[in-house]
Structure formats: C-alpha cells, structure tokens
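Changelog-adjacent note: as of this version, every example in the card shows the full chain rather than a window. The one below runs 233 residues end to end.
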Amino acid sequence: MTALREDFCEILRLVRPGARVLDVGCGEGELLELLTREKQVDGQGLEISQEGVSTCLAKGLAVVQGDGDRDLDYFPTQAFDYAVLSKTLQQMREPAHVLSELLRIADQAVVSVPNFGHWRVRWALLATGRMPETRSLPDPWWSTPNIHLCTLRDFVELCRELDLRIDACSALSNGKSARPIDPHKPIENWRSETALFLLSRRSTPARAPAPVDLFGTAPTPVETEPKRRKAKA
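Full-length structure tokens:
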C-alpha cells in the first residue's frame, strides 16, 4: 500500500465532514478519493491533463478538465467551503491571481508549497552553485514544472499584499508529521521543507474553532500585518 502524503494527512484532518471541496490540480484524484471516503465531502476536481481526468472519472469522482490559471474565473463566488491547492501554486503562471480566485470561490483555502528557503536548498546552492534537487524539489531545472518557486517568507509577504489572513500554518519536513509554526519567525524559513497554510480573507470573520483542527488543538489565527499604504504627499 502506498504511503499517504503527509500534506494529505493534514488536509484530511482539517476538512469538515460533508464540506464542499474543490481540489485544483487534483491529478489522479488521490486526495479527492480520500476526502470522499473518510469525510463524505461533496468534492469536485479541476485537472489539466486528460489522463488525470480519465483516471478520476474511472474512480467515480466529479472532475473536469481545466487550467487553474484561467478556468477558476468561471466558478461561482462562494461555491465551496474549501479550495485546495496542494504543491501546485509554484506551477501556476499567475500565483497571485490564483490565490485571489481560490478565496473568491471558497470560504477558506488550503495551500501547500515547497519552501525554496529550506536549509538543504541553501546549502546545495552554496556548495554546488547549481539549482538544487531535494525531496520536495526532485526535478532538474530544465525539466521541472515549477516556474514560480518561493520561500516561506515570500509566501507570507504575498498573503499580506493580497490582504489574506493566515488562520493556521504547519511545516512538513523529512516525511515527518506536520508541526504548527509561526511562519513569521526567520528560523522557520530555514527548517520548513514544505509549508501548509489555511487561508481566508481578512474581510470575513474568522471561523469558530472546530473540535479538531489542522493540528489537533484549538487553532489560533496567525495574523499577517496589513499592508501599509504610503501616505499621499
């Protein structure tokens, strides 16, 4: 039996039973199948490859073929409780637009990204002078699907620019279980191989804590500082 991805384990713990979920870049539907079986979600998927869509349909999953960069614009506003983007944001041509659309069509977004600021990445660059290949970034530079890699610090800054609230954040490293982190702390930008964020819009009230949250404890929102606007002269 194939081991379950650690970010899938955390997403499974996060999502409420029976919730409406959109999985963007769902691949062959592993996460959707898991959520449907374990949490009885009303799940839908968006996948760009015909092979992935065909595999999902064969499993009985509701998946359509589409490009997350363009086709999120056609989904109705607040059609879902959660929009999930698992290790896919760095492959998008317009990451900021995609994040904004996720939180237009869903109340909350669950986004996981590989951290290009992880110490193994920094060491590989320093020691070899070449683009690193790590467990979370296994492809050589000339064949990687990743076109917008970022660090933990970069992602937090993007959330601030888009006026998004970080409701929770966890770090995933070396195949270990997730641990809750404060993504603003510089040390986490060094030691978090992958980061998983629970996001919402600042303009919407924070949800009441669920009995069991992403980390198995009562969640405390991790507030990003609002973007400061320059005073007009």
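Structural remarks: Residues 95-105 form the longest helix (11 residues).
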